[in-house]
Amino acid sequence: MRKLPYLQLLWFGAIITMLLLSFGPLATMPAEQLPYSKYQQLLDDGKIARVTVSGDTIRGELKEKLPDGAASFITQRVPADIAAELTKHGIEYSGTPGMGAFGQVLSWIVPPLLFVGIWIAASRMMAGGRGGGGMLGGGLLSVGRSRAKLVAETDVRTTFDDVAGVDEAKEELHEIVDFLKRPEEFTRLGAHMPRGVLLVGPPGTGKTLLARAVAGEAGVPFFATNGAEFVEMFVGVGAARVRDLFEQARGSAPCIIFIDELDALGRARHASPITGQDEKEQTLNQLLAEMDGFDRSVAVVILAATNRPEILDPALLRAGRFDRQILVDRPEKKGRIDILKVHLTNLTLAPDVDLAEIAAMTPGFTGADLANLANEAAVVATRRRANAIAMRDFTEAVERIIAGLEKRSRVLIPRERRTVAYHEMGHALVAMATPGADPVTKVSIIPRGIGALGYTMSRPTEDRFLMGRSELEAKLTVLMGGRAAEMLIGPDVSTGAADDLARATDIARGMVLRYGMDETLGPVAWDTEEGHFLDQPGSFWRPRRFSEQTAREIDQAVQATLQAALERALGVLRANRAALDEGAASLLALETLTVDQIPKPVLSDAA
């Protein structure tokens, strides 16, 4: 395929050579360039033996050689009326040659070649810049071809051993592997495998890795593509690519089709007057038709991944299409330990590294987060020129990922440093004195990240999947601890509590609107928006489904919940004012305090 352009150039060269030769010899023996007036004089004197006329060019041979020894000549003809006029006045005159045979050939060959070149360049741009064989292979004729990358069965080296922390998902996918390896076992009793399997989970949990592991375990070809690659500005292109993908898959069966980011292709259809959605809807309709038209005897499995299943078209999720949905969630503590074992295999670790402790520091981390953590710890150890990665490097890496990079160059004025110290110590003391709050591990007033002037690090003792009302109120109390500390040292509160107030407001609104935890409004879910699946914020605007009076009561309930949390935090800090002053002074002196260096608060009735 690579030799095809050279063959075409050879053909072009041969054609041009033949055309040039068809115009006769373009070069002859050397000839004297004569003015046309001199030629007429030689003609009148009878010194010319023979001539050859080609257009305005006259070539000839002389009976006698010229004084300079030339026996042939060439001249350009001048119109007779002009020549006669010039001769009458005794003026020497001559003509100028035109473009000649070669120029004439180029005059009608170059424009078509230029047009063909522009057409090829434009077609390649319309095809997305992806080349193909020959002039047409990568041009307009390839626009409707699928852009899925075919990975041969021998090239997929990922197996289930490379995937950790998602044991339930691996068990579900083992059936897919068995079906691809031994489809007759399933058809023996008349059963059939699900046509499509949808991997659902937050970003970074390993959905794509799981799909590759299925292909590696089954030893079948793997078509990998992305939902966005089907959507183009030209109507019909996406549908053509879907058809081409499924035709290739049928020819390579048994195989796996993996569509990442399915929500880019399968977003729910809406009756809209905007015609710009026609291309997406046609592409989705073609995908639905192809999945319906699959022969169940053909061993082709469609895997897809998304982190926004709530926006998918219901037709995609019905039985016969993506009827099996597998949740690939954030790993729990045991899963995080297993994932760390995979990512730390090739790293040089110090003896004090404890995987269980690292897993305890990283609740909510995904597989991608843990891989990044391992790399960051290695970078921190390298920066301090250590021979092995120690536990302190993992702690620093966790702080860097959560809070951001230290900004020691960001110098605060004394008044701001004092405010930040009291603010962070307020968080820490309230957390240590409030039952149900996460234990505090470190407090610092070293600026980090974009806007954090200090931080209080706490971590849960275990993974939690449900939270009671008392635990949510404890979170609110801790978040209000910083503002409460600022209120105690002066009436002029700062903007440092902006993030705390935003997070506290979200929790309070959730308690009132979604969890029915307000006695006045009762056990009613006033907000049933589905946009928060898997902790992903929703992007759809939905009309409010309650009255203005209820909205006013909701606002009052949220405000009362936050005010109660602030009063609890103030009560804790008033009872521990000495510890607050001592801790803030230590922070100003040392900048960072561990849990052992923080003064121990005394529980008060307000706690």
Descriptive notes:
- The protein is of the alpha/beta class and 607 residues long.
- The protein folds into four domains: 31-98, Signal recognition particle alu RNA binding heterodimer, srp9/1 (2-Layer Sandwich); 149-327, P-loop containing nucleotide triphosphate hydrolases (Rossmann fold), CATH 3.40.50.300; 336-403, Helicase, Ruva Protein, domain 3 (Orthogonal Bundle), CATH 1.10.8.60; 414-597, Up-down Bundle (Methane Monooxygenase Hydroxylase, Chain G, domain 1), CATH 1.20.58.
- The chain is 46% helix and 10% strand.
- The chain is built from 21 helices and 13 strands.
- It has helices spanning 4-22, 36-44, 80-88, 100-126, 134-137, 167-181, 183-187, 207-218, 237-251, 278-292, 314-317, 333-343, 355-361, 367-383, 391-403, 414-433, 469-479, 481-489, 498-514, 548-575, 577-590; strands at 32-33, 48-54, 57-62, 72-76, 149-151, 196-200, 222-226, 255-260, 300-306, 324-327, 440-444, 455-458, 592-594.
- The strands form three sheets. Strands 5-7-8-9-6-10 form a six-stranded mixed beta sheet, sandwiched between helices. A four-stranded mixed beta sheet has the order 1-4-3-2, covered by helices on one side. It has a three-stranded antiparallel beta sheet with strand order 12-11-13, covered by helices on one side.
- Helix 12 crosses helix 13 (355-361).
- Residues 22-29, 128-141 and 530-541 have low confidence and may be disordered.
